[in-house]
Amino acid sequence: MMKWSQIPLGVLQTNCYIVESPDKSCLIFDPGSEGKKLIKWLTKRELKPIAIFLTHAHFDHIGAVDEVRDYYRIPVYIHEEEEDWLIDPALNGSKFFKMQELIKMKKADYTLKKEETITIEDFTFSIFETPGHSPGSVSYFFEAEGFVISGDALFQNSIGRTDLPGGNHKQLIKSIHEKLLFLPEETVVLSGHGPVTTIGEEMDSNPFLNGF
Predict the structure, then answer these.
(1) Which helix (H) or strand (E) holds 76?
(2) What's the angle, vertex CA 92, arms to CA 151 and CA 113, rounded to 5?
C-alpha cells in the first residue's frame, strides 16, 4: 500500500509531498525550497525518488527542483501551460516578492498536456487540470489510496489566491466543483499549504464554495 508524507518547506511553509511504495521508491510533489533538508529527509528513510511532479510553477513550489533533480538524476513533470514559468522569475512570481531571491530553474523534462491516468513503475494516478490559481495548475488523484494532491487550488476552509498573474477566481471555483468535489467525500485532500482536509469537510464547511 502506498503511503504519503507531508513536509512543509521554506518561508511560506509550502507542503512538499512524498508518496512512497512498499519497496521504498517514491514520487516527490512540489519541492518548494530547502533542497538539502529534503534530501536529508529522504536519505534518512532510505527512499529512492524516481520523479518530481509539480502542481504548478509558483516560486514557493519550485525552489528546490534543480537541487533535488540533479542529486537524484530524475525527471520533472509540469503542465505545458507553465513550462516557461520555471525559467522566468516574472512568471513564477519570485520577481515580485522582496523577501524571495529570484527563482530560475531549468526547464522540465516532460510536460503534461491533458487529463489522463498514468503509471510510473508502481505508481498509478490521475491528472486533473484545475486552473484558476494559475493557468497550468493540476491536481493528482490517487484513487486506490484515497487522496488527492491539490496544490494551491483547495485548502482547509479556503481556496487558492487568484490575484497573481494568470489567476482567475471564477475559473478556480469551476475547477474545484467540476474536478475535485465530485471525488468521494472521504477523499483526503493534501493541500499546498496548511493542514490536511477531506472533500466532504470542504463541501460542508468551506465558505468559498457555499452557494455556487
Answers:
(1) strand 76-79
(2) 60
Give percent of the chain with pLDDT exceeding 70: 98
Tell me whether residue 104 is exposed, middle or buried, using C-beta atoms within 10 angstroms of its C-beta: 0 to 12, 13 to 18, 19 or more: middle
Q: Which residues contact 43 (CB under 8 A, 6 or more apart)?
A: none
Cα–Cα distance between 190 and 150 in angstroms, integer?
6
Name residue 17's beta-bridge partners.
6, 29
Select the CATH number that applies to the domain covering 3-205 from these four: 3.30.9.10, 3.60.15.10, 3.30.565.10, 3.30.1330.60: 3.60.15.10
Check residue 211 and give its pLDDT: 56
Please state, in angstroms and as integers, the Cα–Cα distance from residue 150 to each residue in 15, 44, 101, 168, following that order: 11, 27, 26, 16
Classify residue 195 by its DSSP letter.
-
Q: Cβ neighbours of residue 149 under 8 Å, at least 6 residues apart? A: 17, 29, 30, 55, 139, 140, 142, 190
- In the predicted model, what is the mean pLDDT of residues 105-128? 97
| Alpha-carbon radius of gyration of the chain | 16
